[in-house]
Amino acid sequence: MYxxxxxxxxxxxxxxxxxxxxxxxxxxxxxERFDLKIDAxxxxxxxxxxxxxxxxxxxxxxxxxxHSEIIGMQPEGNWISRAPSLKRKAILLAKVQDEGGxxxxxxxAAETLGTSRDQLLDGLxxxxxxxxxxFNYPTLTWADVGVIGWxxxxxxxxxxxxxxxxxxxxxxxxxIRICKxxxxxxxxxxxxxxxxxxxxxxxxxxxQEAVNRWWWPVLAMFGPPDADSPNSAQGMRWGIKRxxxxxxxxxxxxxxxxxxxxxxxxxxxxELRWNEERQQHDYGAIxxxxxxxxxxxxxxxxxxxxxxxxxxxxDGQWVRDAALTYAAKQKARALKEAA
Length: 339
Ligand code: 3HC
Hints:
Layout: H1 25-39, H2 52-71, H3 73-77, H4 86-111, H5 117-125, H6 142-160, H7 169-197, H8 201-220, H9 232-237, H10 245-263, E1 273-275, E2 280-282, H11 288-298, H12 302-315, H13 317-338
Antiparallel strand pairs: 1-2
Helix pairs in contact: 2-4, 4-7, 6-7, 6-8, 6-10
């Protein structure tokens, strides 16, 4: 349903790619080389010189993204033991495991920028680091699992396919595999909901009720409107971000409306309609107060999500200790044998 092609046009194709000049003769040549690479749409690799602000922006975005994948395991993981059939349980297990894997690729990509895994996790566990607002909403029924696949993963793909062309090599390469897997997640969600829609009246009502609850938080997931997005302009000039928050949100709405029609559900927005002039859908106002409350720790499940994550990390301490002890023993043995 969502293309994996990397030919999504930028929002601002003619936008200048140059980055602000750094004062000081020592760095001028390095900065110039960096600018030329960005302008030529070449990849920046870990060993390349890069401005500190570029490095900080990447660590911020990639670590937030990794944390989202890891926290994102919780709402669905909640349903593994209650899946309605062995087939659905196997699919859900694989999907939740995939999300864990995405987090690990992304932590590795962030580590190439010189920030340790421990530092990144510390930011998450102390509540300093952000993760996606969407994972602070509860999964009340089995239909929520399908809706997360269809809408949440659908929105995630819309946002993440352009990141496959991010200027930072390790992030871009990690995103190619992640997007392939997310595409499967989106399809399985759609298929699961289609199955329910062909079922009983009660199942159809369950799907509709879940869609009603998730629609608006999913639209907010793309981030604040462009006019209120402090990081967008610089992120786009550096080729980290390729398409703006509002443009991606619009693409998502336009792609989802026909899917909802095929599925037979109503999207809960009385202002949603095709605009002939714009050749896009108009849609209603998003509740940004609710979005910011959720981002700032006061959404429906923020405290529960963080507490579960911290407990899992604490409970897993013995595994990390055992792995480190084993690695140290292996190293000592190798040194002894080499001596
Ligand atoms: N939830 C939480 N915080 C959000 C947010 C959201 N949905 N959208 C924006 N924000 C935060 C930003 O992080 C930023 O905070 P900061 O400056 O303190 O870091 C602030 O709101 C302002 O937003 P901006 O638009 O200026 O920020 P960005 O330019 O970084 O754009 C973004 C935000 C579009 C989320 C961008 O960072 C991005 O594309 N990130 C990579 C993709 C990602 O992280 N996706 C999360 C979902 S992953 C997922 O869904 C897992 C899958 O399994 C389904």
